[in-house]
Amino acid sequence: MEKILNGLEPQSVLNYFEKISQIPRGSGNEKAISDYLCKFAQDLNLQYVQDEHLNVIIKKPATAGYEHCPGVIIQGHMDMVCEKNKDSNHDFLTNPIQLRVVDDMIYATGTTLGADNGIAVAYGMALLASDTIKHPELEILITTDEEVGMTGAKNLDTSVLTGKYMLNIDSEEEGCILVGCAGGNRNCTTLPLEFTTSERQGMLIELKGLLGGHSGMEIDKNHANSNKLMGRTLDLLTVDYDLISVNGGLKTNAIPRECDAVIAVDAKDIAQLKEELSKIEAIFKHEYRIADPDVKIDLSETTFEKVLTTECKNKVIQLLNLIPSGIQTMCADIPGLVESSINLGVVTTKDDVMTFEATTRSSVDTRKEWINNTVKLVAKAFGAEYEETDHYPSWERAVDSKLEEISIETYKKLTGNDPKILTIHAGLECGLFLKKMAGCEAISIGPNTYDVHTPNEHVSISSVKNVWDYVVTWLESMNQY
After folding, report:
1. CA distance 279 to 289
2. How far is it, in rounded angstroms, from Cα 253 to Cα 250?
3. Beta strand extents in 4-127 (DSSP E only)
4. Rounded to an integer, what distance in angstroms lies between the CA atom of residue 229 and that of residue 347?
5. Which of 96, 75, 91 shows the shortest CA–CA distance to 33?
6. 472 phi/psi in degrees, rounded to 5
7. Residues annotated catalytic, as ranges
8. pLDDT per position as a tens digit, 206-246
9. Rounded distance, CA 77 to CA 146, Å?
10. Helices in 130-269 by DSSP H: which ranges?
11. CA 192 centroid distance within chain
C-alpha cells in the first residue's frame, strides 16, 4: 500500500492517522477500529479496557520525575461522519478512506476525511508509542458513537479513570482553548403518508451544489440548508403538480447539501415547470451569492408508482417550511457566539411515512426546550408524531481552573502569543464526563480543520504539527506545577 503521508511531519502522528484511515469507522461501525486499538495496546504491553460499548481506555505509567503529577486523560472519539459526493462509489462499511495531499492540506477523495476525530486517535497512539516524551500518568480515552448521540461517552464507566486533567482533542482551530460548549439533542417528526394514483409524467428535482458544513461549528456561516430550500421550491411552484417523495441530507449534525423531490406533472406543463425552477434557482443564487454561490436546481424525467394525496402533499410542504432551522438566538454576554440553533438535517421518504430529523443545540437548557417544543407543536398541528433522543448536557466553564492556567502559560511560552479562550456552539463530550467525574477539569484543542462533515473536509499538516508540539510541551511542563 502506498503511504500518502510518508515523510510529512509529525511523522508518528500522520503515520497512525493513515493507518486508521484504512479501517472503516463510521458511527455504529466501530468494532474493527476498537479492536485495532486494543491490539495496539497489547503490542506495547500497556494496560487497556474495552467496554461493551467498544470504548477503549489505554493506560501508560508516568515517566521518571512525573510520578507526583496529576494524571492526564487524552480524549477523542474513534467514529467519523460518513458523507460522500453523489458520484462517489465509496462504501463506508468496507472501503478505506482515499487520502490525498494538496499543498499543506490532507483531503479524502469524494468523502469526508475523518480528521474529526481521527487526529485525536493518532495523537493518542503517538504518545503511547513514544519512549522519549516525558509525561504524567496517561489515560488515552477513545469513545464510540460521538457523532450520532455520544452514546459511548454516556455509557462509559468513568470509575476506571483516575486522571485529574482531561485534554479533549476534538476542536478545529489552532490557537484556541475551548472551555465550554452547548448541550443538545435530536428530534424526529414522523408524518404518516396517504397515497393516490396519477397518470402524469414523473419529474426529479435535484437541489444541489451547496457547501453544507458542521451544524454546530458552521451554523453561523449562513450556508443554505438543502431541505429548507426544497420546501421553499415546492411552495413557490405555481404549476399544478403531484408530490411523490422528498429525500435530503444524510446526518442530522451536518447542514444538508443536497435534496431531491419527485413530482408528477402533465406533459404540457413541463416547459412551465422548467421556467419556474429556473426563476427559483436565480432567487437562491442571489440570496446565497456569497455563502453558497454554486446552488443549482436540475430537472429530469423519472418514474413513480403512486403520489401523495393533495392534503398530504400540503402537509409535507408546510412541515418543510415551518420546522425551524438555523440560528435561533445569539449569546448576550459573548459577542458573536451562537446560543441556540436547530438543523433540519435529514428528510426521508420511506414506505408510508416521511421523517424530518433535526439537531437542536443551546447553551441554555430552557431555550433548547423552547426550540424542541416549537417543533413538537408544528408536528402536532399536522398530525405527525414527535420524538426526542440523544440528549447531552452543556459544558460550563470552570471557575479558577488550574488546567486553564497551565494551558495558557504553556501556549504563551511556546508561541509568544496569547491563545483565544472560547466556548463553542458545537457539542463536545467534556460535559458528559465532567458531570460524572468530580474534581476533573477539561479543555479542548485541535488543529485547523475545515469543512468538517462534508466531502471537502481537510486538515492542515503544519497545524497538526503545531498542535502536536503544544501537546508534547504541555505534558512535559506538568512537573513544574
Report:
1. 15
2. 9
3. 47-50, 56-60, 72-77, 100-102, 105-107
4. 12
5. 96
6. -65, -45
7. 79, 146
8. 999 999 999 998 999 999 999 999 999 999 999 999 999 99
9. 6
10. 151-155, 226-236
11. 29
